Here is the input.
Amino acid sequence: MELVIDTNIVFSAIVRNSVARLLLLNSRLILYSPEGLMSELEEHRDEIKEKSKLSDEKYNELMAILLSRIKLETKEYISQFLIKALEFSPDKDDSPFLALALAKGIPLWSNDKPLKEKQSVVTVLSTSELYEILK
Here is the structure.
């Protein structure tokens, strides 16, 4: 199953050993994200490290493992879909993820409720919904 993965999912998978982490590591999933994911994670690095209580070494190791599962797509790849995504995105910061979902014609994996409730163009699956589908 192919999905675009939102930053909040990666964030939660790093912070704790959870269903999100198990799903992110599930080989049945092919995951994509806009390349901006990396800068978002770096921007919140201190917060993630504090919440996860991981040492630098363990944090870097876990990040490498989790990120190896995600194929990053360039701004150029999603550019023609970005204007449309900006039109219906509840938050402009989410528009690259929506644009990538449009470009690939696949759902977005996110626990962001406004993304699910305030737009109907892209299918949004929460972690619990995805877990139910895969079990």
